[in-house]
Design goal:
Number of domains: 2
Shape: elongated
Strand order of the largest sheet: 3-4-9-6-8-7
Number of helices: 15
Radius of gyration: 33 Å
Strand content: 15-25%
Amino acid sequence: MRAAWLELLARPGRTLLAGLGIVIGVVAVTMMSIAIRGVEANFDRSMESLGSDVLYVERSPWSATDDLWAYKNRPDIRPSTAEALNRMIGSSRFSLLEMAVAAPSVSETVSYKKRAIGEVNLIGTTDTYARILPVNCQAGRFLDEDESRSGRNVCVIGSEVAETLFDGQDPLGRMVKIGQQQYRTIGVIQKQGSFLGLLSFDSDVVIPLITYERYFETGADSASILVKTKDPRRIAEAREELSGDLRRIRAILPGNADNFTINQQEGFRSTIRPIKVGIEIVGLFITGLALFTGAIGIANMMFVSVKGRTREIGARMALGANRRTILFQFLIEPLSICLLAGAIGLVVSLLLCNLLPIVYPGLPVTLSPELILLGLAISLASGIGAGCAPAWQASRLSPVEALRHE
């Protein structure tokens, strides 16, 4: 080992250049793993706003890509469906469903003085909405029961709406204009951030359902019905119960297909898989190409080293070194190069981990012990792959022929 390290230190430039491909490969594989973990973490954070125990009754599935006209021609989901569901849930002691709430929505312009935001998602719902989904207010509060029943002109706004309209001012108690009516702001929803366009309250405005139906209901809108289940572990059974209740409410005859869709957060899982696969393909391609190039460079360097040190090999054998000793000597050199390159690659990855949160705030970036071990294992495997053939060639030399070599 000492002889191998002395040989590498004698030519530091060549050693570092030979290991450059390994450095790139280790950085690529660690950054790929970090990117995939970041995507999954952001996705899971966005999924929290959908609720793992919540079912969504809507006219069409979230992931619908074909036959859109068949879904469009379905009858609308009316807010009154939520009331009918709550009656059925309350009449059954063994129901797996807890409560339902209607949440129709429409795009509207929201303005305050001279500032306005177009295409804001305006939601009409009741105070029970906050019992189904985690709606946390960073200022003020959500709708209460009295406001829901009376249909007052009050609103709860998302964080982005508050930042744009009020620019640092306290929005509580201020009047904003939605459509043609004035609404008093009673709360600001805590900033959530969005990922892949998934549900986020940051750019939403919430008003009481009765107020929504008074000013924005057109008679042709299809609402979403949110249904909370009692046990997330039995959500499949709850889904079957909900389907049966909806068929009775909508008077669907036995044998006829459903004219509604029950969505849940798992429906979005299919949207993240292509992204993860794309990151993996690109990352593995870069990693494989870098490691292959680095291994070829190291193997070529070792073949040259064996040829240049043939007389040294013959002298060692003549003094008693066996073939295994020579094999290990010339195998330790590429292993040392690759482990050194792997360590450099991990240091570079650590620096990138510290820089990424500055460029992409909120991205969870950590260089875990598993990734460190993965980087070192890849480096070790590359060293073995690059050094086997040269080391074997060195160990098979004849001592007499090696001593005669010029």
